């Protein structure tokens, strides 16, 4: 490739990546703050139900992504790649900013979760149109035989978006007190997105249409009905289904297990301090992100299928051992408590004239440096303990662990390994999908299987897996924390079998 061509494609990569990263940042900020948001937009009388409701709202954004893929994919194949994903960027940024402005449940009641749900749906529609446009745009600028390498830069943007969301949250927390962040500071990361969107729009508006699409349009070879030509044509539909069930379905669950499920597991099952979780996840992401490029480049040499299938297989085999090790790393029943340093401080919080919360805060220290804070809240009304809907005493217990540096290092490594699985299945996927479909229906055809695989199979993972863990814990299963892994293991296993049998290496060069 000449220096001028390289300079040109780097401009394309920069403009596409910047916008896509911001869209992922906007989308992920909700998931990164799920624990906090559950206390703001949902009733606080049942924390577990509130958290599950927040995850369900988070998942709703994923469920509508395929509809965004159809709507914006059609536009992209009719009017062009550039203008379509400019619209998705503005829609995503606007919805994210408004989420940061929605009043809490205490202020406007059930209108709060309803508004947030609507905005999440708008975010999902926007993201459904963004990724396919950016990946297609970059691939159509890339030289023959190098699509894996160049599109892999787009693949990094989802992880970078998550990393930036964690960075902004940590920065906000460091500048504000714990009370300020809990009161209003959690809104700041949502507001910040509007500034990033403005910068990206300035960059994107100077971009040109992709050469392949411009050529097809000049020759009158664009689709007149992209949806019909994509899904009404049996030959093309076969490739759409193969892309979904043989690749993106498995890739989607591996992606969300390695990043979002790992984060939620550390926060809600292992009870590790949120700032420590965000820090260790951020470090693991920084270490793992370059491997998107490595595996994208390698897929140009040895094929997309080989790398993606190996990534799924090692994930299937190693998830349970990895999460078992993660859980045991912070399990205080395996640590030695320094009993003489244990302190319990009682306090009272008056809710109104008849209701009082009796709070007992216990701090424990362990010989390896682990610190544990247990806050037990007993809800009283007229001097008697309030009963829940099951007739049991309404007592809430919140545990937070601050882990030592060696445990931190081990958890960083274990999350990093999961990120490597992600890079193997996700690094080559954009080039794989682009090469399966012809230019005139590429945006529409590749967007749907990608967003069904990631949006539905992947996006539902946190809610489904958390439900499995909660159910197993209530049933007294000693290894309840592993039950949530059956969902990604089974889905990735099905995708692996289909991919190994039906994906042909020739697909790599089908529409180059």
TrEMBL record:
One GO molecular-function entry: transmembrane transporter activity
PANTHER family with a match to the protein in the record: MAJOR FACILITATOR SUPERFAMILY TRANSPORTER (PTHR43045:SF7), SHIKIMATE TRANSPORTER (PTHR43045)
Residue ranges occupied by any Major facilitator superfamily (MFS) profile domain in the UniProt entry: 12-507
PROSITE patterns: MFS, SUGAR_TRANSPORT_2
Identification of the protein by name: Major facilitator superfamily (MFS) permease
Compartments reported by the entry: Cell membrane
Keyword terms of this UniProt record: Cell membrane, Membrane, Transmembrane, Transmembrane helix, Transport
Chief place where the protein resides: membrane
Ranges annotated as spanning the membrane: 21-42, 48-71, 83-105, 111-129, 150-172, 184-203, 239-257, 277-299, 306-323, 408-434, 446-465, 485-503
Pfam families according to UniProt: Sugar_tr
Membrane topology listed for this record: Multi-pass membrane protein
Gene3D superfamilies for this protein: MFS general substrate transporter like domains
Record-linked InterPro entries: MFS_dom, MFS_sugar_transport-like, MFS_trans_sf, Sugar_transporter_CS
Record's GO cellular component terms: plasma membrane
Keyword Cell membrane on entry: yes
Keyword Lyase found: no
């Amino acid at each position: 490739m000449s220096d001028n061509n390289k300079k040109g494609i780097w401009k394309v990569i920069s403009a596409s990546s910047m916008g896509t990263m911001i869209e992922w940042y906007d989308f992920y900020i909700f998931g990164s703050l799920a624990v906090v948001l559950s206390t703001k937009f949902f009733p606080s009388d049942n924390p577990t139900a509130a958290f599950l409701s927040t995850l369900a709202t988070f998942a709703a954004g994923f469920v509508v992504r395929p509809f965004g893929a159809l709507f914006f994919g059609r536009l992209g194949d009719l009017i062009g790649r550039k203008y379509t994903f400019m619209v998705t960027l503005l829609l995503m940024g606007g919805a994210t900013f408004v989420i940061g402005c929605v009043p809490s449940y205490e202020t406007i009641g059930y209108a709060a979760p309803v508004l947030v749900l609507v905005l999440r749906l708008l975010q999902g529609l926007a993201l459904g149109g963004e990724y396919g446009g950016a990946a297609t745009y970059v691939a159509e600028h890339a030289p023959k035989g190098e699509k894996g390498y160049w599109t892999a830069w787009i693949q990094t943007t989802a992880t970078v978006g998550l990393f930036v969301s964690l960075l902004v949250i940590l920065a906000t927390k460091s500048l504000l007190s714990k009370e300020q962040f809990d009161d209003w500071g959690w809104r700041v990361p949502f507001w910040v997105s509007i500034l990033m969107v403005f910068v990206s729009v300035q960059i994107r508006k100077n971009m040109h249409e992709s050469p392949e699409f411009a050529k097809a349009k000049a020759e009158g070879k664009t689709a007149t009905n992209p949806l019909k030509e994509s899904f009404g044509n049996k030959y093309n539909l076969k490739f759409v289904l193969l892309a979904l069930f043989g690749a993106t379905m498995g890739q989607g669950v591996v992606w969300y297990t390695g990043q979002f499920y790992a984060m939620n597991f550390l926060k809600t099952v292992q009870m590790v301090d949120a700032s420590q979780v965000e820090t260790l996840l951020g470090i693991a992401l920084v270490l793992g992100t370059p491997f998107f490029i490595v595996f994208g480049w390698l897929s140009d040499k040895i094929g997309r299928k080989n790398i993606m299938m190996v990534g799924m297989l090692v994930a299937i085999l190693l998830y349970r051992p990895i999460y078992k090790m993660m859980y045991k790393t912070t399990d205080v029943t395996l640590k030695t408590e320094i009993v003489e340093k244990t302190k319990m401080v009682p306090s009272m919080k008056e809710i109104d004239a008849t209701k009082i919360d009796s709070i007992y805060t216990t701090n424990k220290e362990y010989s390896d440096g682990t610190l544990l804070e247990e806050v037990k809240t007993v809800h009283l009304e007229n001097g008697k303990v309030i009963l829940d809907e099951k007739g049991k005493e309404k007592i809430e217990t919140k545990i937070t662990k601050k882990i030592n540096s060696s445990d931190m290092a081990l958890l960083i490594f274990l999350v990093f390994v999961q990120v490597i699985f992600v890079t193997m299945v996700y690094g080559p996927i954009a080039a794989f999908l682009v090469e399966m479909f012809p230019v005139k229906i590429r945006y529409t055809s590749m967007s749907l299987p990608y967003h069904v695989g990631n949006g539905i199979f992947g996006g539902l993972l946190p809610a489904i897996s958390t439900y499995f863990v909660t159910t197993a814990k209530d049933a007294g299963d000693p290894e309840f924390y592993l039950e949530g892994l059956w969902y990604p293991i089974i889905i990735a296993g099905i995708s692996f079998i289909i991919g190994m049998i039906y994906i042909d290496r020739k697909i790599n060069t089908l529409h180059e």
